[in-house]
User: What shape does this take?
Amino acid sequence: MSEPDSIRKRRLREFLDRVWSAGEGDAADEYLAESYTIHNDPGDPWEGRTLSREGFRERLTASRAAAPDQKFDPVRMVESGDTIAVAWRWSGTHTGPAPGLPPPTGRALAMTGATFYFFDGDDRLTGHWQIADRLGIYRQITG
Amino acid sequence: MSEPDSIRKRRLREFLDRVWSAGEGDAADEYLAESYTIHNDPGDPWEGRTLSREGFRERLTASRAAAPDQKFDPVRMVESGDTIAVAWRWSGTHTGPAPGLPPPTGRALAMTGATFYFFDGDDRLTGHWQIADRLGIYRQITG
Assistant: This one.
């Protein structure tokens, strides 16, 4: 059942590794279209907005601050048309501040989530539709 | 960009409409394989279990009790190989009991979620990997 990654799957794995896990903000430009729309992402302060590449980097920096050692592991990828749906696991250590969260607890955190990533004809990302297990994180931090 | 639904997409829409939205427990047998595995579903008491068709109906009845008028609306479907990933919106009125929730509030609730559904060679469902915005529901009920 296993087949080699498509160009878009390979690029998406790189984007998750380099940009979201490693925090290489400059690398984001290699993967993003001119604008990036956050179609659905409950709890994300940027939900509903369309960001420039600079705006995306600001969101990246702010979003990664709570757990700078964070890692996204794709567990499934389903590609069709202009979309790749990714089921993922996330882990990180709560060592920094973030909007809506209590001060850093130093706790090891983990959650799952799913993101539908949208591509343009140049294999660049134009936005996403996302859901994450925010309640799981909330309980790990406050419980 | 719009194309007709595949057999599996059509069957999945029917399954969501008839089984999850309308609560037709007997109809589930038309869509399920002999066993159904819940691979990931944070907050679901059946997470990690493999259910018989009877076990699935028990989960259906218990899960729908909190909001019997509930409705699932698929907003995107991405199909490849044995999988269809669905991004969905859910709405319902909190009129019944459910594990882990306070007593019925009568409130109108809404959330989004994503489910990766897995099929066998007979186009029957063998399980899912799911994530839902539980924190959104929790806040709508307790806020």
